[in-house]
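Q&A FORM
Asked by: J.P.
Topic: structure of Pleckstrin homology domain containing, family G (With RhoGef domain) member 5

PROVIDED:
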Amino acid sequence: SCDSRCHSESTSNVHFDRHPRFDLQPQASILARNVSTRSCPPRTSPPSDMEEDEEGERKMVGMKKPRRHTDLGTECFSLKFDLNVDINTEIVPAAKKKTLREVLGPVFERNGVDLSRVDLFLDQSNTPLSLHFEAYRFGGHYLKVKARPGDELKVEQGVKDLRSLSLPNMKPSGGQSPYILAPAAEKVAHESLTRRESVDPLGQARRRKNIIEFLGETNIPTQDSLGPPGGSLPSVGTGPDSWKNRAASRFSVLFSSNAGAGPFVKEVDRLEQLQSKLHSYSTFGLPKVPRQITFHQDSWEEEEEEANLAIEESWQTLLDDPASLTKRQFHQQEAIWELLHTEATYIKKLRVITDLFLSGLLNLQESGLLTEVEPAKLFSNIQEVVRLHTSLWNQVMVPVLEKAREARAPLDPTHLHGGFSTFGSRFQPYIRYCMEEESCMEHMRTLLKDNELFRTYVTWAETKKQCNRLKLADMLAKPHQRLTKYPLLLKSIAKKTDEPSARDIVSSMVATVEDFINSVDSQMRQRQERQKLATISARIDSYEAVEGSSEEVEKILKEYNHFDLMAPMRGTSPEETRQLHLEGALRMKEGKDSRMEVYCFLFTDLLLITKPVKRVEKVKIIRQPLLIHNVVCKELKDPGSFVLVYLNEFKSAVAAFTFQANSATQ
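REPLIED BY: S.T.
REPLY: Here is the structure written out as tokens.
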């Protein structure tokens, strides 16, 4: 037997794991084990029967049956725990349509492990996995569980607390060894060693890495402070493998997702972490987005499309005999089908924005990457736009298709009236999106120029087949383009509809859509004018239209020497915005002698006479604002000159200004 052949009866040879020590012969020289085959003559005789038997036996010994957790199919994956407590490897089903959090939750709860204090790693990867990943993608792999830096002791204590609550404290009775089939000659040694380990704080960490001790915790006792353990226990931290493990632990701490936000991590490390994340997204797909945002499916790369968007290839498949239609009816059906088909295509493009670009950004931000990017400044309210089009499709356009399918009859354009008659209320989110479109585009261009991580992410996303070679800027412009297409599509239907009542209904739909678009255009123009007005207002340095005769008067005037260009116009609704019509430099003469260079702004309701401030790109108001309805303008004989007479409420002249333009055309 093994014990009788290889071991002596002395208990001093007991190995640290309760197995007798092997008394192996000392190894021969390296040169003796690596004899060159060139110096040996070739075999000229066949091998003996004994040699063949030994060789066959070695081959049979080398053929081992693969263990279950190393030969997995795609239906499950292996979960290994690399913690400071011993937990057996678990085989977890790779369930479809379930996240890692949902699948692993019961496993971690059963073992007393807090999900928020550990990270998951795929195979040999050093990049933590998101718990929002879908579990079925990891079938055939193994996942490694590690405590997050700083949480090692809390994880260990949680597991021990659960075991102390669920298991009784069982001690061997009568001094018997707790080990089954232990050698009789070594019972005493085993009992002594068991008692020794019960008071040894390092007993639980003899055969694994202790990251807390590695990081320099002074409260962890060392082997020297505890004294020699006795027997043949190996010393902790000896051998080259220990240094490899410590180096791996150091890199794991430095490049983990939690430590990545530290000030000592360089930009290049964040770029490597981003590229690793993007590679995992390309391999396994994007995980589910955070719960505060709802999308139509689990992952952007799913090949299956929603059933209500899977329409026929042509309207002719809806009819039993499409050839029986007249030419006008044929063209009308083509126009209606173009509206329906382009709507379904447009919704899919919108979902590329939300399910690829926006979802990817949110998942990266969960990992601590691209947190400086504000999704609202980049995508505005694109989610509301997606929801309104999904509602329009399900409530308006799908019923039109269903009626045609059931009756095997042509598409009826009047069935669209119920949805397009409420176009103004349905499409309210477009007002905000169109108003913020230009600022979103500018924000995107700035990020692409200045942020390398964002540029890398957008480039990765734009290469996906879902984008169909379109850039992010092209897709962000789609909503505005789609809005302006509705009148054209509806006009085409009305033009090819012969029945007067149906044509009138479609024409009313066109009018409703155009009214909304005109309203959006008007609000966008007002917004642009307000922005332009704010820019001019920021250029006004001071108001010096009235000068005080003394310091005391100056102090009194200081309270009133100001002008708010952003204030609403008098006698108009708050929605009306003051607009700039003309601006430019003029030479002004007031009275008979004084002349000066001025810069004038002509607005909707008033004229501002200002003077440039030296060395800064600002102006100061040097005359009172002149209300346009109180100004009388007369052209003078000199080319390019004119006079402005300002009247008060009694229609009496209170001021006169002569201006000379640089040219007659000005």
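FOLLOW-UP: The mean pLDDT is 77.
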